[in-house]
Amino acid sequence: MSPSSPLTDRDYQRLSDTLQRFQSAGCMNLEQLDGFFTALQAGPDIIRPEECLPLILGEAFDDERAFPSGKALEHFVGLLLGHWQDIARSLARQEGFQPWLEENELGEVKGNDWAEGFAEAMQLMQDDWNLLFDDEDNASLLEPIMLLAFERHPDPDMRPRFDNGQLEERDQLLAAISPSVHGIHAYFSRLRAAMEAELAAEEADQTRPD
What we know:
By secondary structure, the chain is mostly helical.
């Protein structure tokens, strides 16, 4: 398995098992990781997954006993990169992205872990994400993700008010994740392209002879 190859079902099981092994140390699970990586790639500027290992692994990052060998750690990082590339490929395809959502012990798909992972990544570049929050025409792209991300907020006043938690409303939020992610990705891609064009124009002006 190379970082550029799609992960197999067996790869994903290994990745999930490794993350699960460190849950008591505050490690992300696979659903949280998927939301986290998605925000890093769809957002203002890409932050590589290697730079985020402390956030992904929690206290296990500083535990020398977490991985039995350097080879085991290298394999784990390779799985992370493989998942990163899988997300990149899906974002590159219009309407090709689907969030990794898992059932809980009751067989329910809630989506909170995914949205909380997405929101955690947003905090790394909050000022840049505020550009989208403050954009009246596009801020609604964040609504389904933020509603799910704040549903379990420790402050009850910060939690959204669902209509008795009806399944229909939750299903609508979960279904809205994919188009929202593509819209967010397109939004920041346009911003980056505009900034690069402006920078190129400024550089051309500076090099133009008087």
